[in-house]
């Protein structure tokens, strides 16, 4: 049987890609930044503008990837989009910034293709999203042991808008989380709390610990880790989409 195909737009170093692969998809990954995409373990990759890919699919019905393969619109089972979150992240939310706001154009272009889609973004982008569902590390039991032997739990809420019915595996519950960690870039990581206080903004010192926390095994940069969704989230989304796609086909 042919594996289902996921088009992963804004794919970066592949947090979502790996999740869709674990859910059994062949992944076609697109990112405009070659230095990010080269670490992405997708089966097929294209360095380019994600919005143009959506336009090409609409106009021509297919997109060519850098390995020479082509992806037909009619063969795509799921479109995942993780447009840059910097316009919405804490400190920038509600302010005019130079970061483009791509959620709305993504939705408009994907809707024209009449395929199941997913738009993923940070909590502060919530007002831009339509009925998003939140997924968090606690729902997947994501945790690891820090360098000094203390167990740390991942709290990383991400919102998912879909044009099909996605539900979280369980409610967010941090009542058993004594020590918490995340993976945040920029100034937060230089702050005292981010370095030493295992609460909200704490980022482990070693990349290997951060990768274990996120459930990532392939080679990623610090920035790749800061920007990714944990693969378990995309695996959940991908498996749920498959169940619904199979139901729809029956
Ligand atoms: C938040 S990251 C995506 C993270 C990814 N979903 C993961 O789980 O690893 C956003 C990515 O969008 C890329 N990007 C920004 N604008 C783009 C565009 N117009 N077309 C393609 N990629 C773009 C950036 O290079 C960056 O890698
Ligand atoms: Zn949670």
What do you see in this structure?
This protein is of the alpha/beta class and 250 residues long. It folds into two domains: 5-135 and 229-249, Rossmann fold (3-Layer(aba) Sandwich); 137-226, no CATH class. It has helices at 15-22, 34-37, 50-60, 103-113, 192-196, 207-214, 222-227, 231-249, and strands at residues 5-9, 26-31, 44-47, 62-64, 70-72, 78-81, 117-122, 133-135, 143-145, 151-154, 158-162, 180-181. The strands form three sheets. The protein has a seven-stranded mixed beta sheet, with helices on both faces. Strands 9-10-12 form a three-stranded mixed beta sheet, covered by helices on one side. Helix 3 runs parallel beside helix 4. The mean pLDDT is 92. Zinc ion is lined by residues 136, 138, 155, 172, 174.
List the helices and strands and how they pair.
Blueprint: E1 5-9, H1 15-22, E2 26-31, H2 34-37, E3 44-47, H3 50-60, E4 62-64, E5 70-72, E6 78-81, H4 103-113, E7 117-122, E8 133-135, E9 143-145, E10 151-154, E11 158-162, E12 180-181, H5 192-196, H6 207-214, H7 222-227, H8 231-249
Parallel strand pairs: 1-2, 1-6, 2-3, 6-7, 10-12
Antiparallel strand pairs: 4-5, 7-11, 8-11, 9-10
Helix pairs in contact: 1-8, 3-4
